[in-house]
Design a protein that fits this description.
65% of the residues lie in helices and 0% in strands. Helix 4 packs antiparallel against helix 11.
C-alpha cells in the first residue's frame, strides 16, 4: 500500500487502522487552531485607516497590495485542494486533513471579505489587483502554470512519469505558493503590527500564518512520503528542475517585496524582506531533501514569536483567543 502510486490499493472509506499518523496529527493541530475573523475587533483599524496621520501613504499602499494578493491567492489554493490534490490522494486520513485545509482556506477568504467590509474598501479594486498589478499577476500566473498538469481533468497517475508530474505540481502548490509566496506579505503586515498599526488585520495575518505553517508541514510530509514509497521518481533531473523553480519563485517574491513596500517601514527596508524570503526558501529546500542555496540569516527573528498565539486577554476588553497547541509548531 502507498499514499499514491501505481500499486495503491487504498480504500478511501476505511480510515481505521491509520497508516499515516502524521496526517492525523496535522488534522488535530488544525482543529486546535480553529478561529474566525469576527473574533478580532477592527475598530482601531477603522479609526487609523480613516485618519490622515495614523497611516502613511507608503503603509496604505503596502496594506492594499497585500490584501489584493491574498484575497485571490486563497481562492487559488482552495481550487488546487478540492480539484486536484484531493482527487489523487485517496488515503482517508490524508483526505480528512485536506478537508480541514479546504475549510481553513474558506476562513481565510472570509477574512479578506471582513477586512474589506470593515475598512470600506472598493472590492472591484482589491479583487482585480491580481490582473492589474504586474508583480502580483506574475506570481499568480507562475503558480497556475506550475499546477497546470494536474489541473487537467484527464490527468491520471498511471506511470512513474505521472508521479513525477504530481510531485512537481505539489511543490508548486505547497512549497512555492504556500511556503514562499505568502511570506514577504506576512512579514510586512506583522512588521506594521509591531508598530501598533492596523493591529486587527495584523492579528488575522498571525492566525493565517499559523494555519499556513500546518498546510506547509502537511504538504512536505506528503511530498516526502511519495518520494519514499515510489523508488526512482525523485530523479536528479526532477530535483534540479524543482530547485530552479524555487529560485525563480524567490526572485518573484523579492520583486513583489520592492513593489509592495518600496520605501520600507520604520527600521525595516525592502532588502530585509528579500533576505527573509531567501532564509525561508532555504528552509523549504531542506524540508524536502534538497540543498539550501542562500545561507541567509533570518533578519526577522521576531516573526516566530509574533505567531505564538498563546495569550491571555481581559475578558471585558476582548474575546479570549487562546489555542491549545500554541507552542508546538514550527512557524517559519
Amino acid at each position: 500500500m502507498s499514499i499514491i502510486g501505481l500499486d495503491s490499493r487504498t480504500d478511501p472509506n476505511k480510515i481505521l487502522p491509520m497508516t499515516y499518523k502524521w496526517a492525523r496529527q496535522h488534522y488535530k493541530d488544525g482543529v486546535a487552531n480553529n478561529w474566525t475573523p469576527e473574533e478580532i475587533s477592527m475598530q482601531k483599524d477603522v479609526e487609523q485607516w480613516k485618519s490622515d496621520k495614523a497611516i502613511s501613504e507608503t503603509e496604505r499602499r503596502m496594506i492594499l497590495w497585500n490584501l489584493g494578493f491574498f484575497s485571490t491567492a486563497e481562492s487559488l489554493t482552495a481550487n488546487n485542494i478540492v480539484l486536484t490534490v484531493y482527487k489523487h490522494v485517496t488515503n482517508p486520513e490524508s483526505r480528512q486533513y485536506l478537508l480541514r485545509q479546504a475549510y481553513e482556506e474558506a476562513v481565510h477568504t472570509d477574512t479578506f471579505i471582513y477586512c474589506c467590509d470593515s475598512l470600506g474598501l472598493d472590492p472591484d479594486y482589491i479583487y482585480s489587483m491580481y490582473e492589474t498589478i504586474p508583480s502580483i499577476k506574475e506570481k499568480d500566473d507562475y503558480v497556475v502554470g506550475l499546477t497546470k498538469s494536474i489541473m487537467d481533468p484527464n490527468f491520471e497517475i498511471k506511470s512513474k512519469k505521472d508521479i513525477e508530474v504530481f510531485l512537481h505540481d505539489l511543490v508548486g502548490y505547497y512549497v512555492i505558493m504556500e511556503g514562499i509566496f505568502f511570506y514577504a506579505g506576512f512579514a510586512m503586515m506583522l512588521a506594521l503590527k509591531r508598530q501598533n498599526k492596523m493591529v486587527g488585520i495584523g492579528e488575522q495575518f498571525e492566525y493565517i500564518m499559523r494555519d499556513e505553517s500546518i498546510h506547509l508541514a502537511f504538504g512536505c510530509d506528503l511530498i516526502n512520503t511519495i518520494k519514499e514509497e515510489n523508488e526512482g521518481v525523485w530523479t536528479p533531473d526532477l530535483q534540479k528542475k524543482i530547485t530552479d523553480l524555487i529560485v525563480t519563485a524567490v526572485d518573484q517574491e523579492k520583486k513583489y517585496a520592492f513593489d509592495a513596500c518600496p520605501n520600507g517601514l520604520l527600521g525595516i527596508n525592502p532588502q530585509q524582506f528579500c533576505e527573509y524570503v531567501e532564509y525561508i526558501a532555504d528552509r523549504r529546500l531542506e524540508r524536502i531533501g534538497l540543498e539550501k542555496l542562500y545561507g541567509t540569516e533570518n533578519p526577522f527573528p521576531w516573526m516566530s514569536q509574533a505567531v505564538d498565539l498563546s495569550k491571555e486577554k481581559n475578558f471585558f476588553e476582548t474575546r479570549v483567543t487562546e489555542y491549545q497547541t500554541a507552542g508546538s509548531l514550527d512557524w517559519d
